[in-house]
C-alpha cells in the first residue's frame, strides 16, 4: 500500500481535496476452496438420488474482476499511469472563497528526481515509464488562492446600511500542501544471456547468442515479442515454443531462445559498434497490461581467428 504523507505550512485545514488513483487493468479474482471429504458423513441411498454431474471445485479463478489494492504490483517496463483530481470541498465557511487550483507532480526514483507533465483539465493524467528497481515516490503539490470577504467596520456613532454591508474587502493569500505516495517497482522477468563464437578465419566472426527468460513474479505473463536489435543481422535458430505465437509464462516458467548473429560487413567494421545488440521483450499481464523490457548493450566475446 502506498505510504501517504501530507506536508503543510500550517495546521489550518485546507479546502481542497486531492484524490490519486492508479490507472491500470483489473486482475482476475481468485479464491481458495476447501477439499471435499472423501467419505460422506451420512449414509445415502444411491438408488433414490438423481445423478449429479461432477464439478471441479478446485478451479481457483472466479468469474469476477478485481481492482488491485492501492497501487498493486508495479513492474519495471510498465508505464505507470495515475489520475490526479483536486476538488474544492463543499463545506466552505461563510465568506471563504477558493480559486485558481493548480496541481504539480514529480517522480523521485532511486537515482533522480523528474518533473511530470500533466494532461487533462479536471482530472490530470501523469505517465512515467519505469526503468529502475526500488523505491519510487510520487510527489503531488496542490496550490490555490484562498480569499476572505471582510465587511468594512462601521464608524463610531453610525449605522451600516445594506449597501455598505454588501461592500467587502477581499483578503487573498496563496496556500499549498504536498502529498507523497510511495511504491516499489520490481522485475517480473529475469534475463540470462550467453554468447559463443563460431570458428571462422574472418576478423569479425559469427556467434550464437543464447537467452533464457524466466518469469520471477507471482502472476502469469504472456511474452508477445522477443527481438534482437543490433548492427549485425540476426536470425532466430531455436525456440522452445512456437515462435509464431505468444508464449504464456506461469510463475517460475522459463523460455529459451537462440540467435545466430552474422558477421559484420567489411565496410562497417571501423564505424559500427562491436557489440551484439540489445534484446527487446514485450509482454502482457493476464488481463492485457503492456510492458516493454530492454537489456543493456550486449558485448561480443573477443574474436578468435581460426
From TrEMBL:
Residue ranges annotated for the Trafficking protein particle complex subunit 13 middle domain, each copy included: 204-298
CC terms in the record's Gene Ontology section: TRAPPIII protein complex
Occurrences of domain Trafficking protein particle complex subunit 13 N-terminal (ranges): 14-184
Protein name according to UniProt: DUF974-domain-containing protein
Organism from which the protein derives: Ascodesmis nigricans
Source taxonomy: Eukaryota, Fungi, Dikarya, Ascomycota, Pezizomycotina
Amino acid at each position: 500500500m502506498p505510504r501517504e504523507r501530507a506536508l503543510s505550512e500550517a495546521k489550518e485545514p485546507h479546502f481542497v481535496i486531492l484524490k490519486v488513483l492508479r490507472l491500470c487493468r483489473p486482475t482476475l479474482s481468485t479464491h481458495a476452496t476447501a477439499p471435499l471429504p472423501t467419505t460422506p458423513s451420512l449414509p445415502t441411498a444411491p438408488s433414490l438420488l438423481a445423478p449429479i454431474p461432477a464439478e471441479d471445485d478446485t478451479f481457483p479463478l472466479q468469474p469476477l474482476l478485481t481492482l488491485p489494492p492501492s497501487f498493486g504490483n508495479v513492474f519495471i517496463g510498465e508505464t505507470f499511469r495515475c489520475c490526479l483530481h483536486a476538488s474544492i470541498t463543499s463545506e466552505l465557511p461563510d465568506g471563504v472563497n477558493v480559486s485558481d487550483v493548480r496541481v504539480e507532480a514529480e517522480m523521485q526514483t532511486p537515482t533522480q528526481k523528474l518533473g511530470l507533465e500533466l494532461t487533462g483539465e479536471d482530472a490530470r493524467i501523469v505517465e512515467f515509464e519505469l526503468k529502475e528497481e526500488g523505491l519510487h515516490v510520487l510527489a503531488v503539490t496542490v496550490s490555490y488562492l484562498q480569499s476572505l470577504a471582510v465587511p468594512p467596520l462601521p464608524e463610531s456613532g453610525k449605522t451600516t446600511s445594506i449597501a455598505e454591508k454588501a461592500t467587502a474587502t477581499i483578503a487573498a493569500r496563496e496556500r499549498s500542501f504536498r502529498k507523497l505516495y510511495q511504491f516499489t517497482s520490481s522485475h517480473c522477468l529475469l534475463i540470462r544471456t550467453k554468447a559463443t563464437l563460431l570458428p571462422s578465419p574472418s576478423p569479425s566472426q559469427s556467434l550464437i547468442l543464447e537467452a533464457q527468460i524466466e518469469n520471477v513474479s507471482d502472476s502469469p505473463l504472456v511474452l508477445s515479442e522477443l527481438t534482437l536489435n543490433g548492427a549485425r543481422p540476426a536470425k532466430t535458430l531455436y525456440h522452445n515454443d512456437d515462435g509464431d505465437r505468444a508464449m504464456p509464462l506461469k510463475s517460475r516458467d522459463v523460455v529459451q531462445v537462440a540467435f545466430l548473429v552474422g558477421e559484420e560487413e567489411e565496410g562497417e567494421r571501423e564505424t559500427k559498434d562491436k557489440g551484439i545488440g540489445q534484446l527487446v521483450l514485450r509482454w502482457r499481464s493476464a488481463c492485457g497490461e503492456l510492458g516493454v523490457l530492454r537489456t543493456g548493450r550486449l558485448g561480443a566475446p573477443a574474436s578468435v581467428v581460426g
